[in-house]
Amino acid sequence: MQVALARETDWDGWRHATRALVLAGVAPETIDWQVGGTQGDLPDAQGTFNVPRTLVAIAALAVQARAPERFDLLYRLVWRAHHGALPAAPADDPALADAQALAFAVRAEAHRMRTQLRFMPVEDADGSRFLGWFAPRHHVLEANAQLLARRFADRRWSIVTPDGSAHWDGAARGAPKPAEASGLRFGAGARGITDDATLAAWWEAHHPAVLAESVPDSSVPEAEALDEAPRPLDRPPIGPVVLEATADADVQRAREEARHCRRCDLWAPASQTVFGEGPAGAPVMFIGEQPGDQEDVIGRPFVGPAGQLLDRAMEEAGIDRRTVYVTNAVKHFKFTPRGKRRIHQSPDAAEIQVCRFWLDVERVQLAPRLLVLMGGSGARAVLGRAVGVTRERGRPFALEDGQTAFITVHPSYLLRIPDEAGKAREYAAFVEDLRRVRALMEAA
Ligand code: SF4
Q1: Are residues 295 and 190 in the same domain?
Q2: If you count Cβ atoms within 10 Å of the first and of the last residue's Cβ in the chain, which end, N or C, has fewer?
Q3: Residue 333, ligand 1, Cβ within 6 A
Q4: Quick one: 83 and 38 in the same domain?
Q5: In a domain, 43, yes or no
Q6: Is 144 helix (H, G, I), strand (E, B) or coil?
Q7: Best of 257, 259, 262 to mutate for ligand 1, by most ligand atoms within 8 A of CB?
């Protein structure tokens, strides 16, 4: 009996065939599972049967493993469960333990992809888009794309892998419906990508066709299951392809080291370290508080709503963001989970003090002449004391090491102002502060 699945992650196809074949009494050793090809008639399935919930959870993940034997392995387990021949604990059964190992490997790879995926901005006919590249060890693109679509719903992005690509064109805020209704689409992948330049060249040459041909064809289940932190695996991870803006070699080294920082507890619930970014030799360093929800997912500072507002204000003030370095006092996202949402929590003085280690590295390595301290946490990180931002904002002053500091509000403060008139007034004051910063940049 040959079973042809539509693609490597054809969960619906595998489930449908498994149900029909088990009910028809088709023994595992007579089935040839294939991806692609033409599917013959499956037996007419009559009746129902149950399998343990744990096995379904394992299968939902293991089906995404890059292991050709997985469809057969999972079918054999379902077959045995149906015939009452499956022990409860994986430790008692080598086949069940194999399936569980595949499931863990998939979950670990999904986590690795979410924490190491980097995006760069590109332009296409419809405007700006974030473009990311990753070479996953397992077929985790679709499930990760679902998560990203929920967390990063209001931006346009594409993720390219060797096997396929995922595309999201932005949506109203809030959780999207299942993939087909949400606008999440999947298309061709790319091989031979080694860095930002080859990715950008590939995108430039292929993106109209890839976007035009991509379709909503995912049936990967249980994206939420991937949201858990992975359990440790014995196998070492493969080397990632990391795409990110770099300042210079020393900062890049510090950035790599900071990925594994455990100096305080904030690393544990966060997705990844979000280091600063900007060009080597940037004359100005903008220092905020900490990464937010979107920064935590994407791995870059100031790309969420506050970052977009900062971009707009910089533009109005005549500052090109590409010429400055932006970073945060604390490099991990501190939050309180509330349902599926993650509510921002300000870092406390101790956390700012501990994470100052990395800020000092950035300051020493990049040696900017001017530091723009945005908000109380950014100011505390540099000055080592509580700062009254409203009282002290808007005028430059010298630091002991010869750098100049300038205090202003954090852009997220502007987002929290409830009335429109107050918001407009404070925004104008913020832009005015940035104009002073520009003047200081020009005078330096
Ligand atoms: S918040 Fe800073 S000090 Fe704490 S773990 Fe993260 S990088 Fe390290």
Answers
A1: no
A2: C
A3: no
A4: yes
A5: yes
A6: helix
A7: 262
Regarding the beta carbon of 282 and ligand 1, being less than 6 Å apart is answered no
Nearest to 116 by CA among 275, 346, 10, 329: 275
Total domains present in the chain: 3
- Considering the domain architecture, whether residues 148 and 203 belong to the same structural domain is answered as yes
| pLDDT-based confidence at residue 331 (cuts at 50, 70, 90) | very high
**Ligand 1 probe mutation, 264, 334, 346, most atoms within 8 A of CB:** 264
Residue 1 near ligand 1, beta carbon < 6 Å: no
Cβ of 358 less than 6 Å from ligand 1? yes
Determine if ligand 1 sits within 6 Å of the CB of residue 266: yes
Cβ 261 under 6 angstroms from ligand 1 = yes
Domain extent for 11: 2-111
Is the distance from CB of 136 to CB of 115 less than 8 angstroms? Answer: no
* 349 in the same domain as 275: yes
Six-digit token string for 25:
């009494």
**Any ligand 1 atom below 6 A from CB of 199:** no
pTM higher than the cut 0.85:
no
Q: Report yes or no on 225 lying in a domain.
A: no
In a domain, 171, yes or no: yes
Last residue of a domain, one of 111, 127, 151: 111
275 lines ligand 1 (CB under 6 A): no
Most confident of 6-10, 39-43, 225-229, 306-310: 306-310
The DSSP element (H or E) to which 34 belongs, if any, is strand 32-35
C-alpha torsion 145→133→319→397, nearest 10: 90
pLDDT tens column, 194-245: 888 899 999 999 998 988 888 876 666 544 443 333 333 222 222 222 223 3
> Which residue among 255, 290, 330, 348 is best mutated to probe the pocket of ligand 1, counting the most ligand atoms within 8 A of its Cβ?
330
CATH number at residue 412: 3.40.470.10
Instruction: Residue 241: count other Cβ atoms within 10 Å of its Cβ.
Output: 16
**Phi and psi torsions of 233, nearest 5°:** -120, 155
Claim to verify: residue 88 and residue 47 sit in the same structural domain: yes
Mutation choice for ligand 1 from 256, 259, 261, CB with most ligand atoms inside 8 A = 261
What is the predicted pLDDT for the residue at 248? 55
Nearest Cα to Cα of residue 31 among 14, 45, 48, 11: 14
Give me ligand 1 centre to Cα 355, in Å. Answer: 5
In a domain, 412, yes or no: yes
